[in-house]
Amino acid sequence: MKNWFGSQGNYWSLGAAIFALWLWALPVGAEEPMPMPTPIPTVEAPQPAPEPQAEPQPVSAVLSVEAVSSGFIFTFDRPPQLATGWDNPNLFRLAFVATRLAPDLAAPVLDDGAPARLQLQQSDERTVVALVQVAPQMRIGDPQPLADPRHILLPVYPKAQPDPAANQQTGTVRIVLDAGHGGYDPGAQRGGVDEKDLTLSLIQRLDTHLRRLNYQTTLTRSDDTFIPLAGRVSITNDSQAQLFVSIHINCSDGSSAPYGIETYYTTPQSARLAYTLHRHLIARTGKPDRRVHVRSLYVTHRNSVPAVLLEVGFISNPAERAQLRDPAYQERLVEAITSGLQEYLGQP
């Protein structure tokens, strides 16, 4: 996320010194010596042309940060570039690229009882980072520009209150549920178990849970069928869904020891969904927390809606493989995902 501009190095040429030893003889009776040969001229090595310097991006300035009832409003002198992520489930990182702090920045004063703590710093000469830590009963929404794009709102609100950006009617929320692999693509295989069968069973159970709560769902596959990655993304677009959740089973090639749960996302708009679902999975199962990762996976990168990929266990670990086949444990996993989706959407 940083632009680094290198400077053109100096080039030096070394002129070669040529020393010639001329020998001549005067014939007997000669009055003039033999003429000396003309020395070979020295040719300097050509100087390489300097490489063109990349033009730095214009730098915007953070003019003020205002604490309002709906969160924090950041004001800039020009529309900023930003990237977001979570350092942990309660610490949100907002990075403004090609940005500096204005010398006379007006920052909010927060008392000890404030629902969120804000730390603003110039991490390098072209990046400003805002770290927002929320109280346990609060949560953070996705940053959004206001009518004037020089103003960015970072929503902060109680967990019991629906996300202002979320659709509050369960019957109008559509979620695409994606069972990894399928058909001639079995996914990971261990102990006579195929990943494609586990992911389909989990997605079918999740579909049942969500439909009971009046959510609309679309499955990328409902049987043992191969669906290309591009086709899975197209299903999201064609169904006009608001969310995409993909379930996979992890595998370790080098050892059967690793176990636990990992979650992946790509775009900043998917960060909160990823951390919310991951937190519920860890709390409900008690499995080792293998963290939330940013990775450019096809189905999470190409989707235009918040999209996550959940690796809910290791098929290569015999004990965890047995759990993943157990219907009662599968129910525990989908209950965790369901409660995470309800929290994300601001619904009980």
From TrEMBL:
Cellular component per GO, a single term: outer membrane-bounded periplasmic space
Q: Where is this region: Disordered?
A: 37-56
The EC number on file is 3.5.1.28
Determine the domain of life of the protein's source: Bacteria
User: SUPFAM superfamilies from the xrefs?
Assistant: Zn-dependent exopeptidases
| Entry annotated with the keyword Hydrolase | yes
Gene3D superfamilies given in the database record: Zn-dependent exopeptidases
- One GO MF term attached to the UniProt entry: N-acetylmuramoyl-L-alanine amidase activity
Q: Which UniProt keywords are present, listed alphabetically?
A: Hydrolase
Give the GO biological process terms. peptidoglycan catabolic process
Locate the MurNAc-LAA domain: which residues?
A: 233-342
> What name appears for this protein in its UniProt entry?
N-acetylmuramoyl-L-alanine amidase
Organism the protein comes from: Gloeobacter kilaueensis (strain ATCC BAA-2537 / CCAP 1431/1 / ULC 316 / JS1)
